[in-house]
Amino acid sequence: xxxxxxxxxxxxxxxxxxxxxxxxxxxxxxxxxxxxxxxxxxxxxxxxxxxxxxxxxxxxxxxxxxxxxxxxxxxxxxxxxxxxxxxxxxxxxxxxxxxxxxxxxxxxxxxxxxxxxxxxxxxxxxxxxxxxxxxxxxxxxxxxxxxxxxxxxxxxxxxxxxxxxxxxxxxxxxxxxxxxxxxxxxxxxxxxxxxxxxxxxxxxxxxxxxxxxxxxxxxxxxxxxxxxxxxxxxxxxxxxxxxxxxxxxxxxxxxxxxxxxxxxxxxxxxxxxxxxxxxxxxxxxxxxxxxxxxxxxxxxxxxxxxxxxxxxxxxxxxxxxxxxxxxxxxxxxxxxxxxxxxxxxxxxxxxxxxxxxxxxxxxxxxxxxx
Amino acid sequence: xxxxxxxxxxxxxxxxxxxxxxxxxxxxxxxxxxxxxxxxxxxxxxxxxxxxxxxxxxxxxxxxxxxxxxxxxxxxxxxxxxxxxxxxxxxxxxxxxxxxxxxxxxxxxxxxxxxxxxxxxxxxxxxxxxxxxxxxxxxxxxxxxxxxxxxxxxxxxxxxxxxxxxxxxxxxxxxxxxxxxxxxxxxxxxxxxxxxxxxxxxxxxxxxxxxxxxxxxxxxxxxxxxxxxxxxxxxxxxxx
Lengths: 370, 240
Ligand SMILES: Nc1ncnc2c1ncn2[C@@H]1O[C@H](COP(=O)(O)OP(=O)(O)OP(=O)(O)O)[C@@H](O)[C@H]1O
Ligand SMILES: [Mg+2]
What we know:
Chain A has helices at residues 2-16, 18-38, 56-63, 76-85, 108-144, 151-154, 173-203, 206-211, 217-246, 255-277, 283-287, 289-300, 311-316, 321-335, 343-363; strands at 47-52, 68-73, 90-95, 98-103, 160-164. Chain A is an alpha/beta fold and 370 residues long. A six-stranded mixed sheet of chain B has the order 6-7-8-3-9-10, with helices on both faces.
């Protein structure tokens, strides 16, 4: 099997390149650790809130807040469904005299925003109720010189209960970007190292010589895919273990599913690397692809909320592989989705993979016509 | 007349607007060594690459064993040694040999025997377990030649195989090449060493995108009325 022989050779070369290996395996861990220390900041995102049985005054105040959309639901069940679908970010329900707040909490900035909106609206509502009651009281007083109204009894502070679907009140920004970050590491390192490897193969003449043997072009591409696939699996396992054990991040879904998604992403990165290496004449030119190909992926991957951007800008995200892996991994990690329910993300990734692989196999025709 | 191992007819090759090969006619018969000589940049390597299908010809035809090139299956009958060494320098000599043997489709049971044999021919047996990045230039060249010899191909295409190889070893290599020829296999070899050209059965002189002369060394000397192939070369090029 030539494919296997090529895979073994590529792995052997990689294993002997200790520096590159260290870069691939330890750099992501180091960066993850650093980021977990650094990130816990907040911004004002757009939030969608489901409301159940809220008093009209409170409802209006919440609804009139900037960056907030509200949806009225009559049952908790229906609201919960929307929460799980990601249609709304939180549910506010009035139960007797108390308030139940349920947050999806997949994005801690949104949780914080909902809390702030709720508190502000409550205060506003209370103030206006108090004002009204004050007027009633004063008129009543003037008329009857009667007893003071029992306003204090009526506005006795209602209890507020917070519920979190994912994580707890300590879940931070880091948890949100982790799925994307994971994908980014896999993509970045596999892209760069495989691109360099194929470039070297081309400049050193070994590719020509390889193609002077009866090897099939597809066997070369698949050999590379196998070896880098194995590498990506190890890398993902390492990153997942670090996030779970060292950083204490909760993964609700199946860890294997997370690895599978990252494996597919790695293969996309590999195909990308091989494809772009044909346009580079030197290792430095390969590096020049980083700002063009890799960095924009980060911007459109969802680290920065896309719903606040212009439509055409956020449309770009549909061709960004990291977005799909990030979405899928986030669903698995935070909502506990099964891999089978992520068909769309996975099929888009696989689609990109198939197209790039095909381009690579055809592209090798440049070096041998058959 | 024996069957042709390789036959180029009216081969044309352009790079951009530079026409490197204008009209190349060349054939190698079974059981002969053909030397391809010509000044640097004449297009010797280009002839070889076009024949093997690494460059696409702009005209003419190239056949190997009566099959039009490029043809993937046929490549298993051709041992190619490029002008650059084309080795994996993180691997040992032996690992390089085994890898290329696998690529050539040599069966598992044969691989050990084959690699040991070719290593002996180029005198690398003692250095096979060293990494290639610790090899000397000549050792790399020999390893590259050994790779071309793998699998006893019926046609050997060698692009300057003896550059950087010491005289004793060069003699040994030529002895091997001759015994390959005597087995009825064919060799196309390019060289800048005119002593080597004298050892070929026929010599083709590539100049100005054409094969200016193609005959036995002695016939060439007679034709140009000189004593050595080196003089043929210089005279044809118009230096003297
Ligand atoms: N890939 C390429 N693109 C453009 N020009 C090329 C390419 N390969 C070769 N050439 C040009 O074709 C000409 C012939 O090159 P070639 O390598 O065949 O020469 P050569 O006879 O093998 O020379 P040498 O004896 O120095 O090896 C040169 O002028 C070279 O610049
Ligand atoms: Mg040359």
